[in-house]
């Protein structure tokens, strides 16, 4: 547990949260400043900052809860779809340094945008560039 982390505080019951799912490993609660009704955050109970820091077993638990909760969130919000995503690290917009998956309900007429817009300008990559990047990823696993 990290003392100055709001999500550790919610998991410990020291900070109020509208909890919608709770096990020994994973907790989910409503976002305090929601982008849509039903905006839900799914966190590992232990304080891990990024996906890279998460032990594989816990990663499976977090993704299982995202999988289980997403249809429930959509049904409760009467949504037409959802964006399910992590801001992984400050460069990606992560503000709370306790890993959390967002489930953001989406509506046909909500005026929002697809996840493609979050990364800024698209790079101009050649076929060779793409081959090299794919090779680098395979080698980095
Ligand atoms: P991030 O930018 O780190 O991916 O998203 C952090 C999210 O946490 C934001 O959507 C913000 O509204 C939410 N948030 C920040 N502090 C609290 C809090 O104390 N309680 C709850 N329930 N949500 C919070
Ligand atoms: Zn924490």
UniProtKB/TrEMBL annotation:
<dbReference type="InterPro" id="IPR036265">
    <property type="entry name" value="HIT-like_sf"/>
</dbReference>
<dbReference type="GO" id="GO:0009117">
    <property type="term" value="P:nucleotide metabolic process"/>
</dbReference>
<feature type="domain" description="HIT">
    <location>
        <begin position="6"/>
        <end position="113"/>
    </location>
</feature>
<protein>
    <submittedName>
        <fullName>HIT family protein</fullName>
    </submittedName>
</protein>
<dbReference type="GO" id="GO:0003824">
    <property type="term" value="F:catalytic activity"/>
</dbReference>
<feature type="short sequence motif" description="Histidine triad motif">
    <location>
        <begin position="98"/>
        <end position="102"/>
    </location>
</feature>
<dbReference type="Pfam" id="PF01230">
    <property type="entry name" value="HIT"/>
</dbReference>
<feature type="active site" description="Tele-AMP-histidine intermediate">
    <location>
        <position position="100"/>
    </location>
</feature>
<dbReference type="InterPro" id="IPR001310">
    <property type="entry name" value="Histidine_triad_HIT"/>
</dbReference>
<dbReference type="InterPro" id="IPR011146">
    <property type="entry name" value="HIT-like"/>
</dbReference>
